[in-house]
């Protein structure tokens, strides 16, 4: 009996310990399983996150690689086009150890003319590089009217710039270069009907307007056009002002937008021009504020605008002023407009002015004595003689920029002289008395056959030159000075 009781108790204790140990190890096992499961889940999540990050990094790396590859391809394409342009224009290399005077002198015997241009295409390329550095978000539409020569146009086309055309002939000239119509803005607010028809025929859609009559013409002859409303900003801070001829007053913009909508015409943006020779960067701030107000007006008419044209007039030679302008433009456009709004500009002289040098010879000379008041009433206190020099080019030719562009060309001696400067007047070759290049300037005495040269003669010179009196415009010789093209 005791034995049975002992065995019973023993079996109970055994069962208790067995059950407890089973339960204990079961809990431990479950805990381990749960812990391992949780860790596995966490590891899987981590792995998944890592995979996503890795994929994003891979995609980012791929995008960066594609972008870099695309940039390399674009640069390569530009260099190939420039190489072809050099062949087409017979461009000669200009070594850095050859001075401008030496280069011009080397051409005197080769040229059968008494005046000629030297154009350095590297100057145009450098201006393009400076533009994309300071205004990378602004697409330049070169103002063809500034210098429509094949040399300038071909170089800019090879660089990928777009074009601002003001007439049928300019549009046709640019199209003949192989430029896509989408890279042209017909930026003349008052267009000829024949030119409108030509633009429609060749799908040149983007064009400016600033009056009701223009809308009526466009509705009739080119209703698919993409219109840019030209406004009249304050251009009082510029030497050459355009507000009296072009641009609608801000108070009349809403009515024009409403009329365009009623005619089912598509207005895509707003343009302005602060004037050429602008000397105050704040002009761009004020003009862009006006543009933004027109964007807001358009919204009230159910229209969405997506383009801003900031015009031209940019200086090419004053880097300090150019920097001030571009700083103002970058900051103000970023402040006022969404990233998807296109910003374009219409630079002309910026690209062309410094690229050309004009060399001219003295074809005649006249001595004016102090006491001869009938010939020259201006007296000098030091009893020096005065001279009239007659040059092979004048205001009816390349120096028309004096009349039309407020230019003040400065004569430079091709050969150095030890003589003292004397008062003189420089005349052009025609029989018209208004053909005066410079009055009361001072240079060392010259003789017939001597040469002078004038820098910065690429803008608004040959573009307006005539053959008045039979004096034809000078030829152009193309050169390319040394330049780094790796960042095109």
UniProtKB/TrEMBL annotation:
Keyword annotations of the record: Lyase, Pyridoxal phosphate
GO cellular component: cytoplasmic vesicle
One Pfam family it belongs to: Orn_Arg_deC_N
Catalytic function, reaction form: L-ornithine + H(+) = putrescine + CO2
EC number: 4.1.1.17
Positions of the UniProt region annotated as Disordered: 45-75
Swiss-Prot/TrEMBL GO biological process terms: putrescine biosynthetic process from arginine, via ornithine
Domain of life assignment: Eukaryota
Domain Orn/DAP/Arg decarboxylase 2 N-terminal: from-to ranges: 122-353
Compositionally skewed regions (Low complexity) per UniProt: 47-58
CDD domains (alphabetical): PLPDE_III_ODC
Quaternary state and interactors: Homodimer. Only the dimer is catalytically active, as the active sites are constructed of residues from both monomers.
Protein family (similarity comment): Belongs to the Orn/Lys/Arg decarboxylase class-II family.
Listed name of the protein: ornithine decarboxylase
């Amino acid at each position: 009996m005791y034995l049975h009781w002992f065995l019973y108790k023993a079996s109970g204790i055994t069962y208790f310990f067995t059950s407890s140990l089973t339960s204990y190890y079961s809990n431990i096992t479950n805990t381990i399983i749960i812990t391992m499961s949780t860790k596995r889940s966490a590891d899987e999540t981590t792995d998944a996150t890592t995979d996503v990050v890795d994929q994003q990094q891979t995609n980012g790396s791929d995008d960066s690689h594609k972008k870099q590859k695309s940039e390399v391809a674009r640069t390569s394409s530009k260099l190939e086009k420039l190489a072809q342009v050099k062949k087409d224009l017979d461009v000669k290399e200009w070594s850095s150890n050859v001075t401008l005077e030496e280069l011009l002198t080397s051409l005197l015997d080769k040229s059968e003319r008494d005046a000629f241009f030297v154009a350095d295409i590297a100057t145009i390329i450098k201006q393009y590089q400076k533009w994309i550095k300071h205004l990378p978000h602004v697409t330049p539409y070169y103002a063809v009217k500034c210098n429509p020569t094949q040399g300038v146009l071909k170089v800019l086309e090879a660089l990928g710039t777009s074009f601002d055309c003001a007439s049928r002939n300019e549009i046709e000239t640019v199209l003949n270069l192989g430029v896509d119509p989408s890279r042209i803005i017909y930026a003349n607010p008052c267009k000829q009907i024949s030119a409108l028809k030509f633009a429609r025929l060749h799908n040149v859609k983007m064009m400016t307007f600033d009056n009701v009559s223009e809308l009526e013409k466009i509705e009739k002859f080119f209703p698919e056009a993409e219109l840019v409303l030209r406004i009249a900003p304050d251009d009082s801070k510029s030497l050459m002002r355009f507000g009296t001829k072009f641009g609608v007053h801000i108070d009349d913009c809403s009515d024009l937008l409403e009329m365009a909508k009623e005619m089912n015409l598509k207005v895509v943006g707003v343009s302005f021009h602060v004037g050429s020779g602008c000397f105050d960067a704040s002009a761009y701030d004020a003009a862009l504020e006006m543009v933004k107000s027109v964007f807001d007006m358009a919204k009230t008419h159910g229209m969405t605008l997506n383009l801003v044209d900031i015009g031209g007039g940019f200086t090419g030679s004053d880097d300090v002023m150019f920097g001030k302008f571009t700083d103002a433009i970058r900051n103000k456009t970023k402040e006022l407009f969404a990233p998807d709004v296109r910003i374009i500009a219409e630079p002309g002289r910026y690209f062309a002015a410094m690229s050309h040098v004009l060399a001219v010879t003295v074809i005649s000379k006249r001595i004016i004595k102090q006491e001869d008041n009938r010939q020259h009433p201006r007296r000098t206190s030091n009893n020096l003689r005065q001279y009239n020099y007659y040059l092979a080019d004048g205001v009816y030719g390349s120096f028309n920029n004096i009349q039309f562009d407020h230019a003040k060309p400065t004569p430079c001696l091709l050969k150095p002289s030890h003589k003292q400067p004397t008062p003189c007047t420089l005349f052009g070759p025609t029989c018209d008395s208004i053909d005066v290049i410079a009055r009361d300037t001072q240079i060392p005495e010259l003789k017939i056959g001597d040469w002078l040269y004038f820098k910065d003669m690429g803008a608004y010179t040959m573009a307006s030159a005539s053959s008045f009196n039979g004096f034809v415009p000078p030829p152009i010789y193309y050169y390319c000075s040394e330049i780094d093209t790796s960042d095109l």
